[in-house]
Amino acid sequence: MPDRVYEQTDQPAGVPPLALTGERTLPDVPEENYWFRRHLAVYEWIADQVRGKRVIDMACGEGYGSALLARRADEVIGVDANPEAHEHARLRYRAPNLRFERDLVEGFEAPCDAIAFLQTIEHLEHPEAALTHFRSLVPADGTVFVSTPNVLKLAPAGAPRSDNPWHLREYRAHEFRALCCDVFRDVELLGLFHAGMLRVHELALRAGWDRVHRWLRVTQPFYRWFTPAIESEDFRLFTETEAPLDRALDFLAVCRP
Q: CB–CB of 255/180 below 8 Å?
């Protein structure tokens, strides 16, 4: 029996919904809400750092992050090579200071003050070349924000990497820092952790919640409620002095030339 195909629901008229393939996360798919909010939390943090700036959102995917950045930034360009994602973003997200370009991130150029490149570097065969290109685009006081999942949290225990077919390389904290430091003068590494009700859920799992919900036979009803209820506030970024980064869900490198 084929796996169920999840597709976005309730899209505006004339906007083709995107299917969930595992290559990118999507809003408007209840079953995907955990991952969507996990990514959105980082976009929200970056949005506060780029007020009044010109921003390129490289590998913008569905476009929700570019649209969020445009609420704070002076100008945002969302760049993605995928034709379906580009067309969807172009039709769905419209603002005077927002536009979308279909191009490869390694070759796109435009004046900017900051670049966001989230949850994509693990897809690249030559990540150093992409980071070097990004460094060439921002001014001396510019910033490049790069995020990637922590392989220690993504892969099964003891495995060197996850089974995600889209990922060519996955990183530990020190590996990701070294990659960014090879290209940028100044790199600050942050970690994303569960907060709010996700932190409570995490503690409940440690206390044996997995056994309890199966015994009570409430697994499906509980998670049908719980997953769509997750918000971006249920994640929080910490510096490495505030929390051990090896336990982070994702890393965010704040890179300066």
A: yes
Number of independent structural domains in the chain = 1
- The sheet carrying 98-102 orders its strands as 98-102, 75-80, 54-58, 114-118, 143-149, 250-256, 186-194, 235-239
pTM of the model: 0.94
Q: Is residue 22 part of a domain?
A: no
Residue 184 lies in a domain: yes
* The pLDDT of residue 2: 41
Domain annotation covers residue 8: no
Give dist(CA 220, CA 240) in Å, integer: 36
Beta bridge partners of 254: 145, 188
CATH code where residue 199 lies: 3.40.50.150
Q: State whether residue 185 is helix, strand or coil.
A: coil
pLDDT digits (tens, 9 = 90+) for 157-209: 878 888 888 899 999 999 999 999 999 999 999 999 999 999 999 999 888 88
| Segments forming the whole domain that contains residue 150 | 30-256
